[in-house]
Design a protein that fits this description.
Elements: E1 3-10, H1 19-34, E2 40-45, E3 57-65, H2 68-76, H3 79-84, E4 94-99
Antiparallel strand pairs: 1-3, 1-4, 2-3
């Protein structure tokens, strides 16, 4: 069964996030080190939390894997990706791992 890994970057009072670096450099590292194990990647930049509401998140990255083993293999290769986080944000990302049901 397919599984997803979502990396969620919440907005806080003093949080920073370099969207250009993230899109160009960080996601290139994801592709280089983890990409062989990933079926699909979707990156969403937060623009609103609803009508007339500011976004609650800088960004959400969703990676879909064929199964738990593929995600495990990607995570084993993720050290350079994880080490790069401090280069684009001071946010401690939240993570959600789930079964893809639709």
């Amino acid at each position: 069964m397919a599984v997803s890994l979502q990396v969620i970057y919440p907005i806080g009072d003093s949080s920073t996030f370099d969207h250009d670096y993230y899109a160009v450099t960080h996601m290139k590292l994801v592709a280089e080190h983890m990409g062989a194990h990933i079926d699909q990647v979707l990156v969403t930049r937060g623009i609103a939390g609803g009508p007339d509401q500011p976004p609650a998140y800088h960004a959400v990255a969703t990676m879909v894997f064929a199964d738990q083993a593929a995600m495990g293999a990607a995570m084993k290769a993720s050290a350079p990706v994880m080490a790069d986080v401090a280069n684009f944000t001071n946010v401690q990302p939240q993570v959600l791992i789930g079964e893809v049901i639709g």
